[in-house]
Amino acid sequence: MTPTRKKRLKVVLLILLGVGTAVAIAISALQENLLYFVSPTDVVAQKMPAEKQFRLGGLVKDGSVIRAQESLEIQFVVTDGRANVAVAFNDILPDLFREGQGIIAIGALDKNGVFQADEVLAKHDENYMSPEVADALEKAGHPDAQKGKQP
Amino acid sequence: MKALLPLFIFLIIAGLLAVGLKNADQKSLIPSPLINKPAPEFSLPLLGQPEVRVSKSDLLGTTYLLNIWASWCAACRVEHPFLNQLAESKVLPIYGLNWKDQNNEAIAWLQALGNPYELILYDFEGNTAIDFGVYGAPENFIVDYNGQIRYKHVGVLNQQIFETEVVPILITIKAERDAQ
Amino acid sequence: MIGELGQLALILATLLAIAQTVFPLIGAWLNNNAYMQVGHSAAYGQFVFVAIAFALLTWAFITQDFSISYVANNSNLHLPMLYRFSAVWGAHEGSLLFWVLILSLWTILVAITSARKNSVLPKEFSARVLAVLGFISLGFLLFVVFTSNPFTRILPAPMDGADLNPLLQDPGLIIHPPMLYMGYVGFAVAFAFAIAALIGGKMDRDWVRWSRPWTQLAWAFLTFGIALGSWWAYYELGWGGWWFWDPVENASFMPWIAGTALLHAQAVTEKRGAFIGWTLLLSITAFSLSLLGTFLVRSGVLTSVHAFASDPTRGVYILAFLGVVIGGSLVLYALRAPKMTRGGGFSWFSRETLILINNLILIVAMAMVLLGTLYPLIADAFGLGKISVGPPYFGLMFGLLMIPLVLIMPLGAYGRWKQDKLSRVSRQLLLPLLISAAIAGLSAWFIDNANLRTIAGVFAGSWLIFGSLAYAIQRSMKQRRKWLPAGEVAMVIAHIGVGIFLIGVSMVETTSIEKHIPMSPGDSFQLAEYKFEFTGSEHIEGPNYSADRGTFIVTKNGQAVTTLYPEKRSYRRGQVMTEAALDPGLTRDLYVSLGDQIDAENQRWAVRIYKKPFIRWIWLGTLFMTFGALVGMTDRRFRRKNTDKAVSA
User: Fold this and answer.
1) How far is B156 from chain C (nearest CA, A)?
2) Has the ipTM of the complex gone over 0.90?
3) Which structural domains are found in chain B, ordered by start?
4) A80 assigned to some structural domain
5) CB-based contact (8 Å) between A135 and chain B?
6) What is the pLDDT of residues A82-95, one digit of tens each?
7) Which residues in chain B are contacts of A140 at CB distance < 8 A?
8) What is the distance in angstroms between the Cα of B76 and the nearest Cα belonging to chain A?
9) Three-class DSSP labels, chain A
């Protein structure tokens, strides 16, 4: 091997090493930050392990919201009609949060089976609208088409 | 060979996007855990007849389509002509579940657009809808003669979906019943 | 009438796009001047008709013509005049028309500059460039006409419209999309230059020199557009973040990263004739990622908080178009690859090597963002469940990759082409290194709750700022000229911008104070040296919303600082919006927003109170970068005809 080739080989190896390290870190970071979407039924059935982060989706059960006056602590029940999961949250709720609304909460179960949410997102669409429908509506002359109208 | 590498990478990504696109339709939907499970228990007044209450057991024995609708729901307006047509064809009874609606507005809506429903449950609070796992209106359920949910469709039901998805299920249900 | 005229204008524009694609290609092939000339005329014509269509749609918004369904869906009688303009591109159909308008604008800019007598572009080359741009335009025009027509009528016309999405009712959003689109779409020019070079088979340094100012202009717009989006999200989304790694943001960020890599690779190709294949690929990649972004935003493949109305059938069309454009370019690239020259060699430590490392890091970073953005799709495709990738993934990956990049940046500026010595460069950079270390040390002392990451960030930022300044000073002393070449000034400004940006980011991310607390009128809260007193909330009526407005008196050691009025607005459509109130400053922002109302009777609110140190530096840095790129494109050598005379700046 000529010296230039040797040098080139070294550079290529160095690059491969760098890229390889980056990929390895990326994969492990990805694994750590993956959030599975889980319904209340699955939470109850699968017995999600405590402390494992996931996204819980469902409706806020009517009459289940209890909030503290002195702090931002709030508790409510998320349901998919089949199973209920108690959720505790200690932060500011999204603008569209209300009873009967669909929400997604990100967090983990604690030892008592209560879902400790770090973040709560409200879904916008109570008025479900598939794109074909939105188009049909536009044609039919109903400008409410793509918007979630509250009942 | 080296020159083709970018093309291959692109083709892989494009393939992924194509698959993603195929799944995009169902993406926002959460699979219903209720399919092939008994429908939740309920007892609700009828729309316009608050003194009459109907419960799940009253409806056993017939296979029916349960349509979740409301007068505030724009998409329901699109779906409605198909329901009228379906009611005329008498394939199966259509029961309505009027969801979080004002009594008089719902009745006015039916007067304007026609009433395909054999009966309409009035769920002002929306609790029964929650039990059914309803995310929005319209949604449609097929409940069989045993009171089991056999099918759920989120969004507007139309002729095509009815023929390709609902009819096979109705045939299966009929076959099961005949076999008994 | 407006609807029909608009339709007609779009169809005529489509026909002209066909002419613009076909004739110049044939002309360049047959060396027929008249055919090549058609490209120019068609480009002008196309611009006129697209502009007419756009003007008609704007007119429909101004006059509130609700018989056009797009207007009815995105405006109403109460919508303020200003937002009737931004509503034109506020939703799917209009934003696509806007896309085409901007592409058309870029195209005529190319047509005008290439038609000038002293233009550097050979006729065949500019003909091919216009043909490629015409083809892209054709694809989008067909898309608009067949799947997303903004002029569709509704009969009978409603009395009132539905209203523009309130998120978009903001002055920041009037200019954010145009800037972003100018950037996104601007990469089409660099792309068209690359494809024209590939078609012509003359892939040398010339086309790179021609395409550099265009790339820089597009990059400047994109940088500014992304920064505006970030600034808008900061005050409009009501929770004080400046970047969310949301799929839609990533869609604009990926072309930016590829574009940044391209800017640097172009320098090598132009100066040294090396990396030709790589520069071609990056030109294709940057624009491909713009198209991919459009696809991701418009198809509904990825769900996002931006949540535009999405439609899978539209996605099929864009994907097919993506396949033709990107697939076609890459096939062409593979066919031409054997003909590419290698260019000048270089030793292991040289400016080439440093730029190569820069490109590798940027491309890996881009791939990481792409992976994280598409991972939910991959998981879904393989049935791994419904998954999303949390923002910490992006933050961690991107942060790690940027460390080596930032460290080598001043070296890259100092490094000589072809061959240099690390020891020489290090000697030159010793002083900036010491200054940065001193500043980092001082920051540990003076900044409240500074941690290791803060200090590292301040160090890296200062290293960039002083490293670049030192370079500028030494160069101008050596050159004995009044001014350095614009290209070098550009680099210095942009790199200083990155330094400012970095200091801003590390300060905000590590030393912000964020409190979420319940407050009743009369309550006060001490945040660092500031005291926030909530005096109460009142109900107010806006033009198309009603709102609760809180009043917060901010004092520091008893001295009044400011009074903040955050709002919680309810729009007619039923949406609720949080309008944050802030007191901006060079070294800190104070930020107050109303969360949810805990108790309506006692006006008790959940309140966000933040102190965000140096957050303005984030956007200040991006302004420097933008300005740098604009300076760069004015370099005189871009207007010279011959490579040989180009100064080796």
Assistant:
1) 15
2) no
3) 37-179 (3.40.30.10)
4) yes
5) no
6) 788 999 999 888 87
7) 77-78
8) 9
9) CCHHHHHHHHHHHHHHHHHHHHHHHHHHHHHHHEEEEECHHHHHHHCCCCCCCEEEEEEECCCCCEECCCCCEEEEEEECCCCEEEEEEECCCCCCCCCCCEEEEEEEECCCCCEEEEEEEECCCCCCCCHHHHHHHHHHCCCCCCCCCCC
